[in-house]
Design a protein that fits this description.
Two copies of one chain form a homodimer.
Chain A lengths: L2 H5 L4 E4 L4 H13 L4 E4 L12 H6 L7 E4 L2 E4 L1 H11 L10 H15 L8 H7 L3 H23 L11 H15 L8 H10 L3 H5 L15
Parallel strand pairs in A: 1-2
Antiparallel strand pairs in A: 1-3, 3-4
């Protein structure tokens, strides 16, 4: 056995139990069957542990997740997910067909660029009393776009019948929608896909309710 | 192949996301048609029922290519890269690819969406401060990352999707009076890239819909 394999350290995920971006990475690791360590970063305590000098060296954007893997540190969940996909065996997280790949990336980016950044903690903290309305506005706008797109692309999952990065992005975003009291019933395709995906082991084990840093009162 | 239609880009001369796609087409030497979508006139042409069928997010760009319609500039760029010959827009090495995507996403998820038109319109008189805040925050993160990853370009010595994202974001920074001098690596990379033909031909100052008073 090669020494490099014996000494290869497990990936380390710096994240927060309820961060949708951290959850995406946890799902990807679970789908690929990759063991990893978690170092919790509490986004509220101590003024937000993502703002420490130490954490800033891992991710100068001062956000979670950051992942130490194969001797490098990566941030931005979709960059991490595609890196994992390109370097680890197991079910592919993007389809082989270029048009389907593009649809997976389009759906993922609608969520990861078009919705989540507008309702993440840093932005919400600037909104004060208007935060729920603000978050609902951007989630609804994004879901109003996703619903017709997913009607075209979805089979059993977001794009066709294979689980992909689009599904990985969808479930945590629906969780966020529910936290902000968005009525997901208005989006039947999103609702149906979410319910299907929540039955899958990789989505369940990575759920915010059962992470090392899940608070007792929120544990499943 | 003879009947293969040219791709059609629905965009706006000054939209940084549209510019990214124009750069990618130019780097690959792909001819394409442009259909301008004026983001202000008529209440914003991105809000018409017709445009909504192309992109239900009601944003630019949207690209009709190979019989499908795609939105989200980085999905378009990677599709072009995976289906067209020419210089690769992402490196072959997986770690470098990840760094290219990380840098691209810091811009495309971490900066631009917080200062795009729809959000800025909600900020009223505070819009410049708001935009500066998010651009500065993103550039403060990019500067140390680029110091590590950059060679001649954002990641090593080959032009990539990261460079494609950087130049239009610096243009936006300048529009909002962000002091880019504070970010010497970003400044240096931007100046290098602006010399490259693909970045010049796709510049907002020389598009079909560039207003006369803003033409180069």
């Amino acid at each position: 056995m090669h020494l490099s394999l014996v000494c290869r350290a497990k990936p380390v995920l710096h994240g927060y139990f309820r961060s949708s971006c951290s959850w995406r990475v946890r799902i990807a690791f679970a789908l690929k069957g990759i063991e990893y360590d978690q170092v919790p970063v509490h986004l509220i305590k101590d003024g937000g542990q993502q703002h420490t000098e130490q954490y800033k060296t891992l991710n100068p954007m001062q956000q979670v997740p950051a992942v130490e893997i194969d001797g490098i540190t990566l941030s931005q969940s979709l960059a991490v997910i595609q890196y994992i996909d390109e370097t680890r065996p197991g079910p592919p997280l993007l389809p082989a067909d270029p048009k389907k790949r593009a649809q997976v990336r389009m759906i993922s980016d609608i969520i990861a660029s078009g919705i989540q950044p507008l309702q993440n903690l840093h932005v919400i903290q600037k909104m004060g009393t208007e935060k729920v309305q603000w978050a609902q506005h951007f989630i609804d706008r994004g879901f109003q776009a996703l619903e017709p797109l997913l009607k075209q692309t979805a089979g059993k999952y977001c794009v066709g019948d294979e689980i992909s990065m689009a599904d990985i992005c969808l479930v945590p975003q629906v969780y966020n929608a529910e936290r902000f009291k968005v009525d997901v019933e208005q989006y039947p395709t999103i609702k149906r896909l979410n319910e299907t995906l929540l039955q899958i082991e990789a989505f369940r084990v990575s759920d915010p309710s059962c992470q090392p840093d899940t608070p007792e009162d929120l544990r499943a």
